[in-house]
Write a structure and sequence with these properties.
The chain has 126 residues and is an alpha/beta fold. It has a single domain, classed as NAD(P)-binding Rossmann-like Domain (Rossmann fold, 3-Layer(aba) Sandwich). The chain contains 4 helices and 7 strands. The longest helix is centred in the middle third of the chain and has 14 residues.
């Protein structure tokens, strides 16, 4: 069986940021992780994609947002085009408009911390 997949939008090379902690937490839980950051490069040894469209996976199990709501809203059409089972809106990335628009596009927005959902405390990731 293949590993579950996740794209982390707003992934960061800064280990103190949640966009990095999420990459590490998902890796530790056996996910195939696709970090997304417009700067590209590498995060935690993984190729970082500049946009969701570049991710080689056809469809994702989850997409986790670590960007402001205004940025997330602009990304929703691309997220809907890629497709995912769960769209995680982490604290600070959510807005009523974002949740409503995501639902209109047929997405399943979950307003919660995707790291905590994995059974990992973000504080334990240092």
């Amino acid at each position: 069986m293949s590993r579950p997949t996740v794209a982390i939008i707003g992934a960061s090379a800064d280990r103190s940021k949640f966009g990095n902690k999420s990459v590490r937490a998902h890796l530790a839980q056996g996910y195939e992780v696709f970090p997304i950051n417009p700067k590209g490069g590498e995060i935690e040894g993984l190729t970082t994609y500049q946009s969701l469209a570049e991710v080689p996976a056809e469809r994702l199990d989850r997409i986790s947002l670590y960007v402001p709501p205004a940025v997330g809203l602009k990304l929703l059409p691309e997220i809907a085009a890629k497709g995912c089972d769960e769209l995680w809106l982490n604290p600070g990335s959510e807005s009523d408009e974002l949740v409503e628009t995501a639902r209109e596009l047929g997405l399943n927005p979950i307003v919660a911390c995707s790291i905590v959902d994995l059974g990992v405390s973000p504080g334990s990731l240092g």
